[in-house]
Amino acid sequence: MFDFTKFFSTRATSQDQPIPGTSQVPNSAGGHAWPLDEWARLDRFLVLGSEGGTYYIGERQLTIENAANVQRCIASDGLRTLARIVAISDSGRAPKNDPAIFSLAMAAKLGDETTRRAAYAALPKVCRTGTHLMHFAEYAQGFGGWGRGMRKAVGAWFNTKPAADLAFQLAKYQARDGWSNRDLLRLAHPRAASPSHDRLFSWAVSGQLPAGADSDPACQLIVAMTRLKTMTDATAVAALIREQRIPRECVPTEWLTKPAIWEALLEAMPMTALIRNLATMTRVGLLAPGSAATDRVVAQLRDTQRLRKARLHPIAILAALVTYQSGRGVKGSGTWMPVARIVDALDAAFYASFGMIEPSGSRTLLALDVSGSMGCGYVAGAAGLTPRIASAAMALVTAATEPAYTFLAFDTSTTVLSISPRQRLDDVVKTIEALPMAGTDCSLPMIWAKQHGIDVDTFCVYTDNETWAGNVHPAQALRAYRDARGIPAKLVVVGMTSNGFSIADPNDAGMLDVVGFDTSTPPVIADFARATGSDPILTSLERRRGPATAAGESTPLRHLGSKLSWC
Ligand code: CA
């Protein structure tokens, strides 16, 4: 008998071929995967961005692909696109807000009349700070000039803020990335909503304190800032900073080497600024073992309510932890002695920033793709934080929630990892960094569990979906596992880059594609793991994922030959 099925079978297909009868397309690595539908890809872009590209897809190409996808979403349903942008931006689910701001600018400039109006209405929700607004102006310029809608919306952004809040925004973010408040106000030319707004606009445009500012409560911050420039006594400077809650950006840099000034700044310091300035405050001597300021910082980092309110993203905390613990700055900003209690508090803050997650109780295999391609690029531009390392941190959140989990690292072979959420994150990072890198076979977690007779209800695979080295596809390996063990096991694919591929079969209700580094991913994994066939959560997740699309355009191979063996 000639075995035709050796070459053509729906049960076992080499990854260099598509599974017959499916919509699989070539991925970037010489393997095959399913194309993501446009809405799932929009989510990936909003959370992961395209900065730095991937191992296979350059930054330029990845940006073009994602922007074209945003445009397709806007054309097919502008309001649905805006709802996604606002949902992901406003809840702080993404490490960076720029992909949301960029997508909003596209909707405002390229959408139909209804979409444009809704996009401008959403401006204050997505652009919450002066920097966000300046980025919006820059992105919008790429799609057209300053029309009436744009002028009105930017003018309203300034006018609808209470005057004291506006003063804070104008003082803290005077200019960013080639844009200043003066530029924005001159172009939008809004009529001031109140005499206080008028004074603040006048200050932002001319740099001079206008008449009546001294006696206007809304102008006290800018009055204090102006006084600060002429002051020479550190005690008086610190007192004024405390009294007017002056942010660091408004303090002349020569004062920023003094512990007393930082101590004053610390009192009203927002969480984001706090974690960014931990190293500086340690270097100047304010944060030291046993100091009162250390107590204060530790208490703030352990304040769960405050963390959530600040929308502090876990990736930002992880980046801060890894840098702070190392004791040296990335861009030559000196060295410091990290305070152990602060490192521990950052570690706890990382887990707390995801909020409460109800465990699913399912037996979970957390499988980390540690292949070469996962070691390329930095998550949200955070130096040293590769997708390979950050996916371990994401998986630890599920490990901290679930009572029964196993960690497995895979490339073209498997390694059981003895990492746990009881370890500090920087130790886990070192463990992952020390693993060798090779090619990619995403079917290995399921094959490994079957070979070793291990009961798994939920496989979570953290990957860039660029699988190519296996003799069967991951979806086929999952079905073989279900048949062999009699367990209706599920597969959650946690996508770690914003490419357009997934190893999850969109026609199998037991497979789900989610976005890595999205703060809502761990609770979604738990919900999906808990759901049964008739469970509304499963069906609603199914619906959200949408129907499978036809084969998309294929991406040409950028790396060939020997390089593939280690990525
Ligand atoms: Ca790979």
Number of domains: 3
The name CATH uses for the topology of the largest domain is Rossmann fold
Strand order of the largest sheet: 7-6-5-8-9-11
Low-confidence stretches: 536-560
Q: What share of the residues lie within helices?
A: 40-55%
What is the H level of CATH, i.e. the homologous superfamily of the largest domain? von Willebrand factor, type A domain
Computed CA radius of gyration, to the nearest angstrom: 26 Å
What general outline do the C-alpha atoms trace? globular
Query: What small-molecule ligands were found?
Result: calcium ion
What does this structure look like?
There is one protein chain. This protein has 567 residues and is an alpha/beta fold. It has three domains: 34-224; 231-312 and 314-352, no CATH class; 358-565, Rossmann fold (3-Layer(aba) Sandwich). It is built from 25 helices and eleven strands. The protein has helices spanning 38-48, 59-90, 98-110, 113-121, 123-126, 130-141, 148-159, 163-172, 181-188, 195-206, 220-228, 234-244, 259-266, 271-276, 278-283, 292-301, 304-309, 314-326, 340-352, 387-401, 425-434, 444-451, 474-485, 521-530, 536-545; strands at 25-26, 32-35, 175-176, 179-180, 364-369, 405-410, 414-417, 458-463, 490-495, 501-502, 511-515. Helix 23 links the parallel strand 8 (458-463) and strand 9 (490-495). It is globular. The relative contact order is 0.12. The chain binds calcium ion. Calcium ion (CA) binds next to loops.
